Amino acid sequence: MNEQVLILNHEIRQIEHALNTARRRRKWSNLSLVFGPVLAILLYVAWWVPIDGLIKVAVYIPTLPIVIAFCVSSYHLKRNPGGFMLNSDGSRTLRREGDLELDLARKRDTRKLVIANAEVDTKVRRITYKEDAYSDIDQLRIESRRYRRLNNMLQGFLIIGSLAATGTSGVAMELPILRWATLVLTFLVGISSGFMGYFKYKERSFYLQQTADAIEQEWEAVEVGVGRYKRIDNEDDRLAEFVEEVHRLKAEQMKRQQNLEQSSESRDQSE
Length: 271
What we know:
The protein is mainly α.
């Protein structure tokens, strides 16, 4: 039974890795789909701006290949979505994100049935929960970094866009074509500000990182027997205390997540 559980755990980790790859590919395909046309529109607008030809060449030479790369990347990733799974013969197969999610759920259910049918001792269950906690730490930090990068990107665009809109509005009287650029920049700045305030990416990142650090601290404390575990001599009691504390931390994280979601829904209802 133990060998079967180990095999299932290995297969689950493989599917999780492929699923993370599929999600990253989907994210990059969406970003490419947005930034490619946006840059193309900006280049089209810049073409009609009455500025020196050498300046236009200096702008178009590095920017045009980037636009083409975004468009090609978006086409390739949209045409071939999913993540790569390693086959038994060493080859790789591209699996769609939905199929990977179904396979992951099926493997996890299979593992639960194997453990339940074998009537595994409570200590073994707690040890398994303890080992899985470290995977939860990595997952929480991955989500935290994702929200932090998104918040930093929007914050950076908010700062740069605000300054650029202010600058272009100052010279729009002399160059009427820049009025459209000012309008577009102001619109995009408003969208960025709205997304940051509505979805609260910074708060989500902070809470996820806080929970990951707290679980890691508990994991290290129970490993070396410090903190609340240094006065507990029985290993079963230490595992029970650890499982209870990690469960509490996860429950608090879920409540914070729900509060963030409810705050967004309450704003929708008030509107």
